[in-house]
Amino acid sequence: MQIEYIEQKLLELCREATSLDRVPVSAVVVKDEKIVSYAFNGIKSIEHAEMLALEKAMEKLNTKRLDGCALYVSLEPCPMCAYAIVLSRIEKVYFFSLDEKKGAVVSNVNILEYFDFKVKWEYKKNKVFEDILKDFFKSKRL
Question: Can 47 be counted among the known catalytic residues?
Answer without folding.
Answer: no
